[in-house]
Amino acid sequence: MYDVLVVGSANADLTVRVDRRPGAGETVLGTDLVESAGGKGANQAAAAARIGGRTALLARVGGDAYGELLLGAQRAAGTDVTPVIVDEAARTGTAMIIVDPDGDNSIVVSPGANAALTPQDVAAAKDTIAASAVVSLQLEIPMESVRAAAAAAEQAGSRVVLNPSPAPTAALATELLSVADPLVVNEHEARQLSGLTDGTPAQWAQALRDRGARSVVVTLGGDGALVLDASGAENVPAYASRPWTPPVPATPSPAPSPPAWPAATHCPARRASPYGSAPPPSPSRAPSRPTRPGRSWRSWHRSSRSSRSSRRAEAGRDRPASPGTRRHLTARPAPSARTARGPRRSPAPSSGRRRTSATTRSGS
Predict the structure, then answer these.
(1) Which of 10-14, 172-176, 262-266, 268-272 ranks highest by mean pLDDT?
(2) What is the pLDDT of residue 358?
(3) pLDDT tens for residues 292-350?
(4) Between the CA of residue 294 and those of 2, 133, 275, 298, 300, what are the distances in Å?
(5) Mean pLDDT of 90-109
(6) What is the spatial distance between Cα 90 and Cα 177, in angstroms, rounded to a whole number?
(7) 3-state secondary structure of 196
(8) b/e per residue, 198-216, with b = 16+ CB within 10 A?
(9) How far apart are CA 60 and CA 7, in angstroms?
(10) How far apart are CA 302 and CA 309, in angstroms?
(11) 41: how many CB neighbours lie within 10 A of its CB?
(12) Is 11 helix (H, G, I), strand (E, B) or coil?
């Protein structure tokens, strides 16, 4: 279900600003070329989507870069582009626009793929038309396609909004005027379609309603608009507009970073280290217990070995070794088979001369 279905044109606008518009055969310099999405149908669809309406666009674009530009702009505005037909064999419609310092412009439109939107394309979208509350039409597509869309909307009970722009040179068909509710025209189009050479916007609107339009809206630029229906005429003031900015998609919050390790000087374990502020020795070279002041590693190692030897001698060596006992411990003889030398003593520090064993000394 759509609030608005726009059946119409989609053009790529190529805009250049100039200090003055050139005359016949004259060349003037302008600003850099600006490429943007446009077309009366596409502009209506984007506007309806931006104000919150569920909007779809039925149009035809070429399979080129301008076609991608138009589709991307409609998606950004929130328009459903599923009904859009991409014609790989056609070029997307373009509009060459020249704008002077006062904001007045001159436009030349090359229809491109818009001219290939046929009544058959409209008939294929009848379900989409029937599911739309309002069907909006313009005249930048073939007139037979406009009439087919108006007839399909009338049959489905959808309301038809008709903007007859560009204004046809001939009178507007009665079947289009009779379903327009409202018929939206500017002052130039109102004067031309009403058949009145002069008059006021209210008179032009009344003439168009007398020709069959159910209601008429005459846009007056900065002065707002005039609305005429069965209840009478009403002047609607203009509203100040502001540039539209596309919504920014929400980005997921970044994952929290792991906490940083505390500095070494602030770590309690580091402060309590027996090595002080200096880094501890590597595991391969660190002693099993901290050394005491004034005692070297070698002397501590000798005393440790001597104590272990004494304990082994007192405990006896004839009991079976446990599975985890080292091989050189299990291979030693029992205390009864050992010599009466007592516990094994640690060697004294070398004095640079070769020392003889106790056996050698006793025998000499």
Answers:
(1) 10-14
(2) 45
(3) 555 555 565 566 656 666 666 665 555 555 555 455 444 555 555 445 455 555 555 55
(4) 93, 98, 15, 12, 11
(5) 89
(6) 32
(7) coil
(8) eeebeebbbbbbebbbbbb
(9) 10
(10) 11
(11) 25
(12) strand
Please give the Cα distance from 134 to 161 (Å, whole number): 7
Could you tell me what percentage of the chain is helix, strand and coil, using 3-state DSSP and rounding each to the nearest 5? 30, 20, 45
Q: Which two tokens mark 93?
A: 């419609």
**Continuous H helices in the chain:** 40-50, 65-77, 119-124, 126-130, 143-156, 174-177, 187-194, 201-210, 268-271, 297-315, 327-330, 358-363
Taking the C-alpha atoms of residue 4 and residue 186, their distance in angstroms, rounded to an integer, is 21
What's the residue count for the chain?
364
Residue 195 is classified by DSSP as: T
In the predicted model, what is the mean pLDDT of residues 92-121? 91
Beta bridge partner(s), residue 196 = none
Residue 255 to residue 290: CA distance in whole angstroms? 43
Cα 29 to Cα 297: distance, rounded to the nearest angstrom? 92
Question: What CA–CA distance (Å, rounded) separates 27 from 33?
Answer: 16
Contact 138, 40 (CB under 8 A): yes
Angle at the Cα of 50 from the Cα atoms of 63 and 100, rounded to 5 degrees: 75
Nearest partner of 61 among 6, 11, 135, 128, judged by Cα: 11
Q: What is the mean pLDDT of residues 139-161?
A: 94
State the sign of the Cα–Cα–Cα–Cα dihedral 46, 48, 53, 57. negative
Cα 213 to Cα 138: distance, rounded to the nearest angstrom: 15
C-alpha atoms less than 13 angstroms from C-alpha of 16 in its C-beta half-sphere: 16
Show the DSSP H helices in 201-315 as ranges.
Answer: 201-210, 268-271, 297-315
Structure tokens given for 193: 């379609």
Residues 6 or more apart whose CB falls under 8 angstroms from that of 161 comprise 134, 135, 136, 137, 180, 181, 182, 184
Structure tokens at 238: 């203009």
